[in-house]
Automatic annotation (TrEMBL):
Compartments, as annotated in UniProt: Cell envelope
Keywords in alphabetical order: Leucine-rich repeat, Repeat
Protein name according to UniProt: Leucine rich repeat N-terminal domain
Lineage: Eukaryota, Sar, Stramenopiles, Ochrophyta, Bacillariophyta
Species: Seminavis robusta
UniProt keyword Membrane, yes or no: no
Length: 95
C-alpha cells in the first residue's frame, strides 16, 4: 500500500503544493523522474522523509516552482544545472 500511495502522489499533475514530513519508518526512497510531470507545482517540501538519492534532472521542468526544501534527507550528488535555471525559485533548502 505504501508504494502505491507514493506512485500516485508523483502523478498528480495539477497539484500546486506538496509537503511530505517526518517519514522515519520504512524503506529508503528516492524522488522519481515522474516529478517532472507535476508542472503546476509551486512548492515542494520533502522534509525528514528518508530520501536517499540524487535530485533528478526532471525537477528542472517545474518552471512554476518557487520553493524547494529537501531538508533532513540524505540527498547526494550534484545539483542538476536545470534546477539553477528555475527563474521563479526564491527558496532553496537542500540542507
Amino acid at each position: 500500500m505504501e508504494y502505491v500511495l507514493q506512485d500516485a502522489i508523483w502523478k498528480m499533475q495539477q497539484l500546486e503544493d506538496l509537503t511530505l514530513r517526518s517519514r522515519i519508518l520504512g524503506n529508503k526512497i528516492s524522488i522519481p523522474t515522474e516529478i517532472g510531470t507535476m508542472i503546476e507545482l509551486t512548492s515542494l517540501r520533502v522534509v525528514d522523509w528518508n530520501l536517499h538519492s540524487t535530485i533528478p534532472n526532471q525537477v528542472g521542468k517545474l518552471e512554476k516552482l518557487t520553493s524547494l526544501s529537501l531538508h533532513g534527507n540524505a540527498v547526494s550528488g550534484t545539483v542538476p544545472p536545470a534546477l539553477l535555471e528555475l527563474t521563479n525559485l526564491v527558496h532553496l533548502d537542500l540542507g
